[in-house]
Amino acid sequence: xxxxxxxxxxxxxxxxxxxxxxxxxxxxxxxxxxxxxxxxxxxxxxxxxxxxxxxxxxxxxxxxxxxxxxxxxxxxxxxxxxxxxxxxxxxxxxxxxxxxxxxxxxxxxxxxxxxxx
Length: 117
Hints:
- The chain has strands at 15-16, 27-31, 40-47, 51-52, 56-58, 61-73, 78-80, 84-87, 92-93, 95-97, 101-108, 111-113.
- The strands form two sheets. Strands 1, 2, 3, 4, 6, 7, 8, 10 and 11 form a nine-stranded antiparallel beta sheet that branches. It has a three-stranded antiparallel beta sheet with strand order 9-5-12, with no helix packed on it.
- The chain contains no helices and twelve strands.
- By secondary structure, the chain is mainly beta.
- The chain is globular.
- It has a domain at 26-35 and 43-105: Sandwich (Jelly Rolls), CATH 2.60.120.
- Residues 4-108 form the ChrR-like cupin domain.
């Protein structure tokens, strides 16, 4: 028998999103398999209305599925419910949500906070 982790994304406990050290205002997460040291794994990210991500560079692929709400990227692109987004290693950005959002994130490497945004 294989070990497994089943998550009902509509019935989970969220903790302050502290991936970059201190908690980011209006953001919380539920870790599914994410490892803070390797930057590998998955988590559910909840952004309350008005939340802004830390500007960052992807050291590996970062991919996510929009479950609810909208996310506006630093270049003005709007990601909506049902969309799958993939950022390549070396890409830099930050995102903002006016409405709030629920996102499932698949992280394949650490992100590095940046000051370019």
